[in-house]
Amino acid sequence: MNDASTSYDVAVVGGGPAGLAVAIALAQTGATTALIARRAPYADNRTTALLGGSVDFLQALEVWPRCHDKAAPLQVMRLVDDTGRLIRAPEVRFSSDEIGLDVFGYNIENRLLMEALEARAAEFSELTRFDDEADAINPQDADVAILTGQGKPLSARLVIGADGRHSLCRQAAGIEVKRRDLKQSALTFNISHSRPHRNISTEFHTPQGPCVFVPLPGDRCSVVWVATSGEAERLIALSDDELSVAAEAQSHSILGRIAVEPGRHLFPLSIEQPRQFARHRVALVGEAAHVIPPIGAQGLNMGLRDAADIAAVVAEAIAAGEDPGAPQVLKRYDSARRADIASRTFAIDVANRSLLSDFLPMQSLRAAGLHLIGSVGPLRRIAMREGLAPSWRPTRRVGVDEI
Ligand SMILES: Cc1cc2nc3c(=O)[nH]c(=O)nc-3n(C[C@H](O)[C@H](O)[C@H](O)COP(=O)(O)OP(=O)(O)OC[C@H]3O[C@@H](n4cnc5c(N)ncnc54)[C@H](O)[C@@H]3O)c2cc1C
């Protein structure tokens, strides 16, 4: 990566997993791409359950071979009603072999995925890295002017906002965002345990939110524990021994003795929905385009679909001699993403609300829905396939492979 030129087809702002993936996908298509992103060690202990097409996409980007041996396969997903309420849902068990797959996907520590993405991004001469922040972004008629924090000016015909939930790119494009604070937080930490997880991810549904134990390689799991903000604050303040005991109790000892590993993080939860996904020469990907609670492992999987779609739309536009930032090109991207993002945000919101609800009819409806999914094979298989990716999603080609 070099920084000889200051005018690009595309500039990607933000170097989280969504930003790096989109920068690689674009560079792979031959588009001249600037990546404005600080090089910094990944700062939290989140892991990502990469589902379905996400692994194929990372394979096509030549990222997956660099990290797949550090990921744990996910073959079974269990949903356990742990609300203790009068009306409880039966346990639902999704098994990948029921839909003809060896695995649903793989769980990997974000820091390891990021290392693989960074290593791949460093290989492209088409990709110019600015180890900096974007300070000012000004969409104009023919291009977007960008000024970095260190005062470097550059321009691009299209800017991709991969700059997370407080997106400057989104603000620069004048895209409004609907935001709802959920008054819940997710506590994340990793554990080792005495019984094997057998590649089974188990999600306990509590009246405050889900607590999920997701396999990591060896006898280890990542834990995402969603609770009211006050309870999450209490949990994060526990000693290692106390949190180990609390996690073991919450897991009903299915993993045997639990020992928490160093490192905990707290994520206040919200739902954020921008009114558009692209406007004024700016297209949004990742959390700049959607923030949802960590239920069903959908966030980054959607972010990777954003990355694949914008890279394909840009490649098609450039091949056809179009301006990649032109309104009709942005409209294609917006249409490609709208149904996927809107339907998943809605489904996750309903799943979360129905879990928290004290309203008896809502609890009955939830229990009945889970009972149907658990006992009716075709319904269960539809739920599994939809959980991996939208069935109606058109196949897109990114560089060399399908996702
Ligand atoms: C507890 C928890 C568990 C989760 N588990 C899963 C899961 O299992 N599966 C899944 O698919 N998803 C999961 N998610 C969601 C997933 O973590 C997010 O979707 C993903 O990390 C978002 O990545 P991103 O690249 O869009 O944003 P970020 O990781 O926030 O990256 C944005 C980057 O942009 C940079 N930036 C900001 N402003 C500027 C600027 N002006 N100039 C340059 N750079 C800038 C920031 O420094 C940052 O590096 C989970 C989320 C949480 C909270």
Walk me through what this model shows.
- The protein has helices spanning 17-29, 53-60, 110-121, 168-172, 229-236, 240-250, 299-319, 327-356, 360-375, 377-388; strands at 7-13, 33-36, 47-51, 72-74, 76-81, 92-95, 105-109, 127-130, 134-139, 144-148, 153-161, 177-193, 200-206, 209-216, 220-228, 258-260, 265-274, 278-279, 282-284, 397-398, 401-402.
- Strands 1, 2, 8, 9, 10, 11, 18 and 19 form an eight-stranded mixed sheet that branches.
- It is an alpha+beta fold and 403 residues long.
- Helices cover 34% and strands 30% of the residues.
- The protein starts with 6 loop residues before the first strand and ends with a strand.
- Helix 1 runs parallel beside helix 3, helix 1 (17-29) runs parallel beside helix 7 (299-319) and helix 9 packs across helix 10.
- The structure holds flavin-adenine dinucleotide.
- Flavin-adenine dinucleotide is lined by residues 13-19, 36-37, 46, 48-49, 133-134, 162-164, 168, 186, 188, 224, 267, 286-287, 294, 297-301, 303.
